[in-house]
């Protein structure tokens, strides 16, 4: 049986090609510590399994609504989720 990080990578790994640009949405720019924990877990996952990928966009959801990004081809969009996802 795979440990928890390996199980996550088993599911997400094939969706993020090595070196793919990444866009991270829904930075927890509020006091909900649960959403911050989700963000930190995602950060740890990316640092562990996807070091070759580069971040091309990071924002909270409100900024992204006002200023939609122009993302490069092949960009993988990651949405942290949690209770603030609408």
Describe this structure in words.
- The chain is α/β, with parallel strands linked by helices and 86 residues long.
- It has a domain at 27-71.
- The protein has helices spanning 4-12, 33-49, 61-66; strands at 21-25, 54-59, 76-79.
- Strands 2-1-3 form a three-stranded parallel beta sheet.
- The relative contact order is 0.28.
- The mean pLDDT is 86.
Please report which band the strand proportion falls in: under 5%, 5-15%, 15-25%, 25-35%, 35-45% or over 45%. Answer: 15-25%
Instruction: Count helical runs.
Output: 3
Radius of gyration: 13 Å
Weakly predicted, low-confidence segments = none
Output the helix-strand order. HEHEHE
What number is the mean pLDDT?
A: 86
- Which class do the helix and strand fractions yield? alpha/beta
Percentage of residues assigned to helices: 25-40%
Task: Give the N-terminus to C-terminus distance in angstroms.
Answer: 34 Å
Secondary structure: number of strands: 3
For the biggest β-sheet, the strand order reads: 2-1-3
Give the biggest sheet: 3 strands, parallel
Using the alpha-carbon principal axes, give the shape: flat
Q: What's the layout of helices and strands?
A:
Blueprint: H1 4-12, E1 21-25, H2 33-49, E2 54-59, H3 61-66, E3 76-79
Parallel strand pairs: 1-2, 1-3
């Amino acid at each position: 049986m795979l440990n928890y990080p390996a199980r996550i990578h088993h599911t997400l790994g094939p969706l993020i090609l090595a070196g793919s640009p990444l866009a991270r949405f829904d930075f927890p720019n509020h006091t909900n510590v649960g959403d911050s924990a989700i963000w930190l877990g995602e950060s740890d996952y990316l640092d562990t399994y996807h070091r070759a990928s580069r971040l091309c966009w990071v924002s909270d959801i409100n900024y992204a609504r006002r200023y939609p990004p122009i993302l490069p081809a092949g960009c993988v969009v990651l949405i942290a989720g949690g209770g603030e996802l609408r």
